[in-house]
Write a structure and sequence with these properties.
It is built from 12 helices and no strands. The chain is mainly alpha-helical and 314 residues long. It is found in: Cell membrane.
């Protein structure tokens, strides 16, 4: 019984530490975003046509803009802790919770499919290149991977529209609601990640294939297929698993461009529109939700790495 309780204490301590780190990270992120938004010139109701003073005063009172900045911050933070992200300035008929509730599944579908595609193709191409290291296949794949990393998403997305929508008429140029609307955005988000995953997998697989324990296993007569899947693949994927966290951030930041190009009602598009229109509550809500997702994914990735390599635990 004592040994069981002792083994549970480090787990509980690590869990509590990670929860505390997550709360502090989200609080710092939200505070920094709040300060930067309010420091930017202009306001949410600055238009070419000046509103009458009584109308402007009513708007300021409705959205707490008549209060001091510390009071606005404390009021917003208190509401956010209770799960209320406030009303949207740009979409007065909707709350931020409603807008994010509609946009999050769209972005999650695009981002999840893009990461899945990047993992499947990136790992496959990386292993294939490593097994043919030095050959023309390896050089061709790494050349394509280099091009994939060099071309930014704001160039890839319009090129995909020009080729598959305008020229070939195979897929729609934008919109949302049908399965074919998903194809081009997912490819645009996945291409740079496929390239990086392929290069990372190749380098890791080459290191593993040259390890002493694999030479010994090969000398015992094990087949190359068994060596690959039973002994080489799992340790070779450790760097790829560690890469999932920055890959997620890459997908999130890239979604702002991709969703704008394809007219997708996702989190990235709302973030861009909210920033341009000084919709403080919408931008803060998007940042807070995305930050919470990234923290949660990082925790899952750390746990997965610990399961794959117990030496990382402790």
């Amino acid at each position: 019984m004592r040994s069981d309780s002792r083994s549970r204490h480090p787990v509980v301590a690590r869990l509590g530490s990670r929860v505390l780190e997550a709360v502090i990270t989200l609080w710092l992120l939200a505070t920094l975003c709040f300060v930067l938004l309010r420091a930017a010139p202009g306001g949410p109701f600055d238009t070419e046509k000046v509103a009458p003073p009584e109308v402007q005063a009513a708007l300021d009172a409705q959205y707490r803009l008549d209060q001091s900045l510390p009071m606005q911050y404390l009021a917003w933070l208190g509401d956010a802790v209770r799960g209320d992200l406030g009303p949207s300035f740009q979409y007065p008929d909707y709350t931020v919770n409603q807008l994010i509730g509609n946009a999050l599944p769209v972005s999650a579908l695009n981002g999840g499919l893009a990461l899945l595609l990047a993992l499947l193709l990136g790992v496959t191409l990386g292993v294939w290149a490593a097994l043919r290291a030095g050959g023309w296949t390896d050089r061709a794949l790494m050349l394509l991977a280099g091009l994939g990393l060099a071309i930014p998403k704001f160039v890839v997305a319009p090129l995909l529209v020009l080729l598959f929508a305008v020229t070939l008429h195979w897929l729609p140029a934008g919109g949302w609601g049908e399965w074919d609307n998903v194809v081009l955005p997912v490819i645009a988000l996945a291409l740079p990640n496929i390239a990086y995953c392929a290069r990372l997998t190749r380098a890791s697989m080459l290191d593993v294939l040259s390890a002493d324990y694999l030479r010994a296993a090969r000398a015992r007569g094990l087949s190359e297929t068994r060596l690959l899947f039973a002994h080489a693949l799992k340790p070779a994927l450790l760097p790829v698993v560690a890469w999932l966290s920055p890959a997620l951030i890459n997908v999130v930041t890239g979604s702002a461009v991709v969703e704008q190009v394809f007219g997708i009602p996702g989190m990235g598009r709302y973030f861009v529109q909210g920033a341009l229109n000084r919709d403080y509550t919408l931008v803060l809500g998007v940042v807070l939700v995305i930050g919470a997702l990234i923290v949660a994914i990082n925790t899952v990735v750390d746990a997965l790495r610990g399961w794959m390599d117990p030496r990382l635990e402790g």
